[in-house]
Amino acid sequence: MIKSPKTSKNTKVKSSRRATPKTKSESPEHYDEVRLNKFIASCGEASRRAADDLIKNGAVSVNDKPVMELGYKINKKNDIVKVNGKALRESKQNVYILLNKPKDTVTTSSDEKNRRSVLDLTAINERVFPVGRLDRNTTGVLLLTNDGELTYRLTHPSYEIAKEYVATLDEKVTTVVIKKFQSGFNLKDTGERLSPCKAKILDDGFHVWLSIHEGKNRQIHRMFWSFGISVKKLNRIAYCGLNANKLKLGEWRFLTSKEVKSLYKSVSLKLNFTH
């Protein structure tokens, strides 16, 4: 772990005139100072949360010294950051992709079982990462980008980003269950309290539309399991208002400028570059 150098109490000042130290707002170096996890995300290596895991696991070094301190700050112009021995550079261009995720595809950059990743489906030179996760057999809308700050905000629960799904069930659902979803309830397996969500029964009762803003692990499966119902198929039909209506499973496209601006607006970010 890198420690900040200590200033000796006995250091003598040769000049009799004391220099006025620059404040952070005045110092040019301040504008190049950034949290380590944010820098890793801006390089397209991982999301900020995944970057925290890399740091905690000892995979990150700064100037060839391991750093395992969350919240550690670097100077992005002067410091050399490496992940697993590979030096990082900030991405020059932000990329935004909408993928219609197929089944049997994981949303991680690497998989110990060598299963197909969503990153294998995009033929671009820039390194991107998924915005959040979908289970291996969940299909539908998934965003990929190298914009670390946008990813961080879209996946942070405080912004309450809407995620819409259609669940296919092994038995008919009742209005009693739907009302529980709409009012909020405690998951049966862990007792965690879920916030109210939007839900309605479709056609024959074996299909349910839901809109949630939380992102707990396998949340929708666990919601129905709490009432003895199994989810046979789960499809995300929209994320923050974006859908994959014109894309077949496995197909992807770049977001339009209008769509990118809409994402930025939804998380109170200013778009300070041209897309």
Describe this structure in words.
- This protein has 275 residues and is α+β, with helices and mostly antiparallel strands.
- The chain has three domains: 28-87, Structural Genomics Hypothetical 15.5 Kd Protein In mrcA-pckA Intergenic Region, Chain A; 96-157 and 242-266, 2-Layer Sandwich (Alpha-Beta Plaits), CATH 3.30.70.580; 162-239, Alpha-Beta Plaits (2-Layer Sandwich).
- The protein has seven helices and 14 strands.
- The chain has helices at residues 28-31, 36-42, 48-56, 148-154, 175-183, 219-225, 257-266; strands at residues 33-35, 60-62, 65-66, 73-75, 81-83, 86-87, 96-101, 129-130, 139-145, 163-169, 198-202, 207-212, 231-239, 252-254.
- The strands form three sheets. Strands 7, 8, 9, 10, 11, 12, 13 and 14 form an eight-stranded mixed beta sheet that branches. Strands 3-2-5-6 form a four-stranded antiparallel beta sheet.
- Strand 2 and strand 3 form a beta hairpin.
- The longest helix has 10 residues, at 257-266.
- Residues 1-28 have low confidence and may be disordered.
Which keywords apply here?
Structural Genomics Hypothetical 15.5 Kd Protein In mrcA-pckA Intergenic Region, Chain A, Alpha-Beta Plaits, alpha+beta
Q: What order do the helices and strands come in, and which of them pair?
A:
Blueprint: H1 28-31, E1 33-35, H2 36-42, H3 48-56, E2 60-62, E3 65-66, E4 73-75, E5 81-83, E6 86-87, E7 96-101, E8 129-130, E9 139-145, H4 148-154, E10 163-169, H5 175-183, E11 198-202, E12 207-212, H6 219-225, E13 231-239, E14 252-254, H7 257-266
Parallel strand pairs: 9-13
Antiparallel strand pairs: 1-4, 2-3, 2-5, 5-6, 7-9, 7-14, 8-9, 10-12, 10-13, 11-12
Helix pairs in contact: 2-3
